[in-house]
Amino acid sequence: MAKTVKAIGLMSGTSLDGVDVALIETDGETVAVFGPGRTYPYDAADRALLARALEDARGLADRLARPGVLGQAEQRLTVRHEEALAAFFHAFPQHRDVSVVGFHGQTVLHRPEMRLTVQIGDGPALARGLRALTGPPGPALVHDLRAADVAAGGQGAPLVPVYHQALVRSLPQAGPVLVLNLGGVANITYLDGDADPIACDTGPANALIDDFMTARTGAPIDRDGAAAAAGRVDEAAIARLLDHPFFALRPPKSLDRNAFRDWVAARGGLDGLSTEDGAATLTALTAATVGAVLAHLPRRPALAIAAGGGAHNPTLLAMLAARTGIRVLTAEDVGWSSDALEAQAFAFLAVRALRGLPISFPTTTGIARALTGGVIALPNGAQ
Length: 383
Ligand SMILES: Nc1ncnc2c1ncn2[C@@H]1O[C@H](COP(=O)(O)OP(=O)(O)OP(=O)(O)O)[C@@H](O)[C@H]1O
Ligand SMILES: CC(=O)N[C@H]1[C@@H]2OC[C@@H](O2)[C@@H](O)[C@@H]1O[C@H](C)C(=O)O
Fold this sequence. Notes:
383 residues; alpha/beta; Nucleotidyltransferase, domain 5; 2 domains; seven-stranded mixed β-sheet; five-stranded mixed β-sheet; binds adenosine-5'-triphosphate; binds the ligand CC(=O)N[C@H]1[C@@H]2OC[C@@H](O2)[C@@H](O)[C@@H]1O[C@H](C)C(=O)O; transferase; kinase activity; carbohydrate metabolism; Anhydro-N-acetylmuramic acid kinase; ATPase_NBD
């Protein structure tokens, strides 16, 4: 058996809500210990800068170019990650002996069909900052985890399925299990025994809801699904929005955070709806798009396990159960953490990358052969 090490994962997701930090002890195949997880929220200025960075990345053709505010955003994001690590080590000084850190960065553009995916975040700079926090030699830092897959013709996302597989292996559940990651964008992993995980992005999870709530109320989320629970779903709007060609595609497939924004606007948006009805309709759209993927899976899942911020939204969970007909539990119900799962996954992926183990598969990103990935910044400053 390979050596179990302490690994930290760092994730800045499509919701632009903050830096997730989580620690696990793992050999990259199984998880021995779930350590602590924390989220260090961005302030309004950080969120605004990252949102502008996504706009300025729109026409990017070169993944190394940093036009507009992208350079400034990359620097700020790297500093915020270093600050998050400093706060994490202050809270948990016993974990300064971490061996590996996986650094996702922030996706600002995702166009796998153009062999282009861009995650901002300065790996070598964060590796230096990390060494100052832990003392020498410092952990290895693994970053840019999507690039190799996209360069090889893969979707570059989702990458969490191999982690979902490791976790589901230790559950008693029989029959196919669906793990739902409900962040800004939703993705699923379908697991059935020892078969390779089948995975894809399914559509928006919270990104459209967050954007709609921000525009209507100034508050960035529909907390606990309260607005959606008070509204009425516009089924005609759902049918119009579901007509997007993405939903008819078979997995593997992946999405840019803002892929549906223009689609919604072009179909009349939700301007005529009240805040409650609009929130209800967008929440039902997320549930319906998860439902739409079921037709592409080999068997009907016996259970769905919801993670990510959307797992805190009871209205969304109820709509998922109603529209899929599948029993829906949360990550907490099975002993995992909704908020830490993605960051834990990047800790796990970093350990796999260091060991040269695959992180993406034909059934998850569509590449020809299982592939490892990540750029490794070693403690001595070498790449
Ligand atoms: N209590 C809550 N009620 C309703 N929605 C919530 C709640 N808590 C979190 N969310 C939703 O979850 C989102 C954050 O989810 P998460 O942190 O999983 O996203 P992410 O990691 O940024 O996204 P992705 O997985 O797409 O990269 C928030 O923006 C919000 O929409
Ligand atoms: C390009 C990119 O950053 N994609 C994210 C995004 O956020 C959710 C969904 O879209 C998912 O495919 C992916 O992140 C998760 C963590 C993944 O790669 O598994």
